[in-house]
Amino acid sequence: MTAPAILAEDLVKTFGDVEALKGVSFDVPTGTVLGLLGPNGAGKTTVVRILTTLLRPDRGRAEVLGVDVTEDPMGTRMSIGLAGQNAAVDENLSGRENLRLVGRLTHLPSAEIKRRSDALLEQFDLTRAEHRLVRTYSGGMRRRIDLAAALVHRPPVLFLDEPTSGLDPRSRTDLWGTIEALVDDGTTVLLTTQYLEEADRLADRIVVIDHGAVIADGTATELKGRLGSTVIEVGFGDPTNVARASEQLAPLGAISTEGHQLRLSVTDGAVAMLATVRVLDAAHLEPLTLALREPTLDDVFLSLTGHAAEEPTPGEDADATPAPGRRGRRTRTAGAGR
Amino acid sequence: MSAPSTTMPAPTSAVKVGKPRWFGDALTIAWRNVLNIRRNPELLVFSTIQPVIFVLMFTYVFGGAIRVPGVPYIDYLMPGIFVQTVVFGSLTTGVGLAEDLQTGLIDRFRSLPMARSAVLVGRTFADLLRNVFVVALMAVVGFLVGWRPNQSPLSILAGLGLVLAFSYSLSWLFAIVGLYARNSETAQAISFPIMAPLVFASSAFVPVSSMPGWLQTFAEHQPVSVVVDAVRGLTYNGSTPREVLAAVAWIVGIVAVCAPIAVTRYRRVV
């Protein structure tokens, strides 16, 4: 437990004139999960590619289990597993053959490959499909065989690049359970995701990156704590009312808006709720919905990246493939406490 | 789902992961690629239909108009067809690599502690095996339409061996194309302009002497012609050692230049 399992120090990577990473640093203690959170094009995949020896950083240092990733890539590869959007399995091989492929390429004895394949196929509920070609698998099965392939050689450090993107909720929950079991066994995991729920559930610590820079770092609780203790959500039928309400409510706390919705982060929920009602009533603004709730990572994310988006960032476009779901949501943040 | 995990030893016991072995790793990749060929039999079938059509077309359509002194046209043609088939067939090396890059399979390989040359050595080896099958099939088709080589069986086998060796060298050339193209469509688009002049501005189908003078110099000395001429000699009317040596020199030269370039490119490709 002396050195961290994964260490990233001031990683810089430029593609052409696009700065994909502008000095990213973090570390992951052995046996814990780090959630790397950010919108598409934030630089998450670039970080993973550097740490898994697929890409050399322009500057900075990266270590896995104390081994320098750029100085000893082969040594690094001995102890890592990679799954997710970056790594694939062979569609024309069966599930079992794919596991054998990885087992052979990591030079395990054949008896061990067989044992590991049996166990993994069982664990990932693929035993009945083990002889079917992967091209006939469903999306969820593909992700499972992909993850299984990353585990054949029992890597102590696991990189999962958006492991559940595109999965249905049921498969996602299943995969979460699997990842939790791995961590219970002592595996260190770096997980990139766009889903806050996923980071909230799996990650011991969360690093939020946007435009190639770390914009927040902490536990889920810490990140939520930054936003005040409670969120008041006000929904309007008419978006123009959202803007008017924002002005009126600004003195009460930090505001972020999104379409017909307005979120107000406050410290004293009940009192702020009363104040909100009074302000809206006085301004003759009638909300459709009005709710008081605990803040989620979504709120943190919106306020953090929303803030970052307001600052002019050169080279943003080429780096970022806009994610309609995420990017389109942030509109503006205003107000107190930040 | 997680039940067996409790019985597994902690992952920190993962010390059995072995160091890269260039030959063993290449064999593993070759195994994987051969499985891929077997799982897509239609691809193999269609890649042999095209040369069969060429045999029939050149024999029955153009053959009557092409006169080669001292050789029945089918015996002149078959060595050209063999070589043409493996030239076009070597496209699959590049296209396959580009596909593996596209799907992210290469990324998985590059994150594993395997020999850096294995993906390329294994694939070119699997493609060589595929060509053994294709060439054998073409020989049968040729025989059915009247191909009658008049040299010793050993000499004929040497000729076919030369065709296969040439196909192996071209696999390395088109591996480079595939690694630069990064997707299969681009790989095909880049490859055709390289292949077409090599195959058609050659002695594969017609004697070079029938071409305009400025083209003859190129057509006579480019690798396809050199190999075709050597194979032609080895199967019909005898060859000189010089012809065979020239073909071998081209083959060795292409591998010696292209293999290091391809491996270097593979290490750097992002």
Give the class of chain A from helix and strand content and strand pairing: alpha/beta
Give a quick account of the main beta sheet of chain B: strands, pairing sense, barrel closure: none
> Could you give the count of β-strands of chain B?
0
Q: Mean pLDDT of chain B, rounded to whole units?
A: 88
Radius of gyration of chain A: 23 Å
Query: Quick one: overall form of chain B?
Result: elongated
**Oligomer class:** heterodimer
Using only CA atoms, what is the Rg of chain B? 21 Å
Order of helices and strands of chain B: HHHHHHHHHHH
Q: pLDDT average of chain A, as an integer?
A: 84
Could you tell me the strand content of chain A as a percent range?
25-35%
Helix fraction of chain A by DSSP (H/I, runs of at least 4): 25-40%
Structural class of chain B: mainly alpha
End-to-end distance of chain A: 36 Å
* Through-space gap between termini of chain B: 35 Å
- Tally of DSSP helical segments of chain B: 11
Uncertain parts of chain A: 307-338
What fraction, in percent, of the residue positions of chain B are helical?
over 70%
Characterise this structure:
The complex is a heterodimer of chains A (338) and B (270). Chain A contains 13 helices and 15 strands. In chain A, α3 (95-105) runs parallel beside α5 (139-151). Chain A is of the alpha/beta class and 338 residues long. Helix content of chain A is 38%, strand content 26%. Chain A is elongated. Chain B is mostly helical and 270 residues long. Chain B is elongated, with a radius of gyration of 21 Å. Mean pLDDT of chain B is 88; it is low at 1-15.
Tell me briefly what this model is.
The complex is a heterodimer of chains A (338) and B (270). By secondary structure, chain A is of the alpha/beta class. In chain A, 38% of the residues lie in helices and 26% in strands.
Could you give the topology of this structure?
The complex is a heterodimer of chains A (338) and B (270).
Chain A: E1 6-15, E2 18-28, E3 33-37, H1 44-51, E4 59-64, E5 67-68, H2 73-77, E6 80-84, H3 95-105, H4 110-123, H5 139-151, E7 157-161, H6 169-184, E8 188-193, H7 196-202, E9 205-210, E10 213-218, H8 220-225, E11 230-235, H9 239-249, E12 254-258, E13 261-266, H10 269-282, E14 289-293, H11 297-310, H12 316-319, H13 324-327, E15 332-335
Helix pairs in contact in A: 3-4, 3-5
Chain B: H1 22-39, H2 41-62, H3 73-89, H4 91-103, H5 105-110, H6 118-144, H7 153-181, H8 184-200, H9 213-221, H10 223-235, H11 241-268
